[in-house]
Design a protein that fits this description.
The structure is a homohexamer of 131-residue chains. Chain A is α/β, with parallel strands linked by helices. Chain A has 5 helices and 5 strands. Helices cover 40% and strands 20% of the residues of chain A. Chains in contact: A-B, A-E, A-F, B-C, B-D, C-D, C-E, D-F, E-F. At the A-B interface, helix 3 and helix 4 of A face helix 3 and helix 4 of B.
């Protein structure tokens, strides 16, 4: 295979970001780690169709939070797999999350992220080949 | 049984509202039919804990829409079963809907609403007895 | 079709028993309504293989309760669909229920029982033809 | 609502066909009952995009069977909800059925068909509005 | 993250216990390996609220078995994810297991345990922050 | 444990075959890698009952394709977990795949195959002990 599925990880705590990046990288994903919501939104505007999944923290050092990042991702790519990571905000998933997303509560094991991402991508409808 | 599960139906097209009310009533539910988003929000503020499910249209003749009604319902009652009814807005469910909700696209059969409501209530965690 | 799927309903509150019997009967099931756990156990010993589903109350006027009725049913027929009906005992489902069963909390709408029974039978593996 | 979801029912045993037609009709569906596989295939060639679901018997008085009817339906409409009805052939569902379909084994209760059809349509992705 | 999710593993065959401990440890979990049912029950009495999951063998060298350990765990923590491991007793899962649990039949691959634990924790409702 | 679950992998692109073999091997599976459909069919005729899962490419350098390999596997072992891997043919999964199978679209991450196989085996009914 000449390419790997791309996963956008949005996390501003470096230790968690690197742990997730390592785990997804070993699992076979091509990870793009971004720490700011505005950059994540910018990345999605230009590349939502080539993303295989979005993994996002909720509280970000921005005027935007992870709930908004995920909603914008789904507007651009309606079947985008979404995994949220959060501590205190995990309880808000039922009112603020998007359908068919997974909330992984902190502290978590890296395997929870890998399993959530892999399961959601496996369930997503296949994309038509592009020419 | 001295009472029936209460379902709040928010729909401003009278024919659809009555069809849904009849079907849910025959199915054994106690239906409260409301045509305005602001009234639905008011109802939920005072009674979200006693509601067994919310069934809501998306486009309402208000400054609020069904997406907001459902989010507010979930803030007040995090496990509230939610069913959306919509025609044109059905495609926005993946970005605007709440998790574990069902989008029923118009035109629909009444049984789709009854099945969606019953399935979601059956999956909801039981509520502790109140004294 | 020369026969209907048989559903065993175990309920000692007559009003609820009759409501469930009527709803399942109109839905196309052949209902056997029993009010005592010991009779339900006896019925299952002789007929577990021909039952399509078990619907049982938890608190019964016996030394046995619905949890035991369901466990015995599954010992005799490992894929038997099981629906529990309960008020106060609904919270014990996660520790006392059998896997792949549904807890319907009282008060419920009749459609919840019909939907639960129908969904579980539809998911059950088909049975080989008997000669 | 000016229209109802259309369900194609393929069944050559008149009694079962009429029972299913009645139940789905009362549930709010517009039913097209066909007894021959070749007619079902013809119907789907011209109308697969407007069908909301396919309900098909397996053994038909044709050179084609229900497995082929469903595969052709999915080729024409990849997200078409499919419900099979069968007695002896139910065991072949795991090798001959299409993904995300439901096998309802005969003898069945009419509510099983209504629940299967309604659940599958509720899960199907919404269709874009046509102009 | 200053902590890892804690998984209690109850297994009296040392080779299997260590294999599971290693696999869950590499996956990012903090594993407590216990070989006796009575110790597992004691551990749960004092710590069920801080456990993220229970993985238990069925046959243990005690008067208690894994079915009882899991039921007690669920009484103390109603949403505790439960994974059973068993060879001969796997068939009893449908009558003796708790709802929403997973039976992993021996011999298994370590990834089956990691996937089962991670999937169940990801589905469990988030816990409120403790102060 | 004196043995590992056996997974048959059918893939004629060596690089992908080896990647999948390595990933499943590290996950704890005993992998049999085969590059030709006819050999896979031969292997299944003699060993379908001892296989824990089938992972198959769709396009093979044979007169048979992966769709046929999987159907034959399910005829021999009706609960065999099936994972398909494909690029261009992924869209045909809804018409050509077997029920309860997973389509993993190329390019994929190795963790997608491990998660798919592990999840499907965990859901499969346990097999009775053989003497």
């Amino acid at each position: 295979m000449d390419s790997r599925p791309i996963v956008l990880v949005v996390e501003d705590e470096p230790l968690i970001g690197l742990t997730v990046q390592d785990a997804l990288g070993e699992a076979g994903y091509d990870v793009r780690l971004i720490s700011k919501a505005v950059e994540a939104l910018h990345e999605m505007e230009s590349a939502a169709q080539v993303l295989s999944a979005l993994v996002t923290d909720i509280r970000l050092q921005d005027e935007k939070d992870g709930w908004e990042v995920a909603r914008r991702g789904r507007e651009l790519n309606p079947t985008l797999p979404v995994v949220y990571m959060s501590g205190d905000s995990a309880l808000d998933h039922t009112s603020q999350g998007v359908p068919h997303s997974v909330m992984v509560q902190k502290p978590f094991a890296a395997a929870q992220i890998v399993t959530a991402v892999s399961t959601l991508i496996n369930k997503a409808p296949p994309t038509p080949p592009t020419d």
